[in-house]
Threonine aldolase (Rhodanobacter spathiphylli B39), 339 residues
Amino acid sequence: MEWVDLRSDTVTRPTAAMREAMLGAEVGDDVYGEDPTVNALQRRLADELGFDAGLFVPSGTQSNLLALLAHCERGDEYLVGMDAHTYKFEGGGAAVLGSIQPQPIVHADDGTLPLARIEAAIKPVDPHFARTRLLALENTWHGRTLPLDYLVAAHDVARSHGLGLHLDGARLFNAAVACGVPAREIARHFDTVSICLSKGLGAPVGSVLVGSHALIDKARRWRKVTGGGWRQAGMLAAAGMHALDHHVTRLAQDHHRAEYLAGRLREVAGIDLLGQYTNMVFIDVPAERLRDLDVHLRAAGIRISIGYLPTLRLVTHLDVDDDGIERTATAFREFFARH
Ligand SMILES: *Cc1c(COP(=O)(O)O)cnc(C)c1O
């Protein structure tokens, strides 16, 4: 029996067609800028999203880090969500490696950073303070899409204070598909955007940072400094190209499956459905049931991330089909009926 793995959309494995594309990739030395497939991927995303240039990097963490290092100098500050990946889940890289101070902002429930909180956090120009330089947003954030009119307003506030804007768009294409707009319509409010190819898009490795020539040149230098300069990376870029060709519009299926799963779980007594956003479903289950639930699901061939918190996140992706969703719904129903 194949596992139904709902822990994250990072668990996808390359399809046969993607592996085929990787095998046939033309390659060169990317540190010399000579890998044609890497160059094509960078060009393609820069053009599609409306930027001068792109930079292919091993991970979303590195892509965000390079963006922060490109925007900010030692002693500068960036404004970021208290629960943003960049702030919370990237080892504090900008502070560790860039001497860049984060100023966390408490999110509203919809994932936005309220504009009044942003404005209140911007420091006066004065030697007492770090220099506030950048606003970093995340879309989707815990599956939630940021409203398009919020992006316009956040952009205007940031610009009126002379701040740059970075988007952690690890799941930018999920946001675009869910909002029914081209990804460019979201990206255009930012100076740099980081996109993960290795999440719902299904590539094995890689993220792309897009921005102006000046910012991407700085990011490329920092990529080398942080050990991310790679050589014949075209085989990985080919997977990314294949993902952009074949796995973008299908993200809608992941969202539909998440919605369907949420509907099924809502009917189960014992489960508190907290919400469903794009490809993620959030539920609360009684904390004392977590261990038994994990055992039960694993026996049914289903993997979810179970920690010590009663809130569970189930994530749909390329490797989860209708049958897997059905099996999951059934396994949850059986568990709560029996116990
Ligand atoms: C996964 C993720 C990243 C980082 O990507 P890695 O490739 O795992 O380093 C950044 N931001 C968000 C919102 C993510 O979900």
Remarks:
- The domain at 16-245 is CATH 3.40.640.10 (Aspartate Aminotransferase; domain 2).
- The longest helix spans residues 322-338.
- The first strand starts at residue 4 and ends at 5.
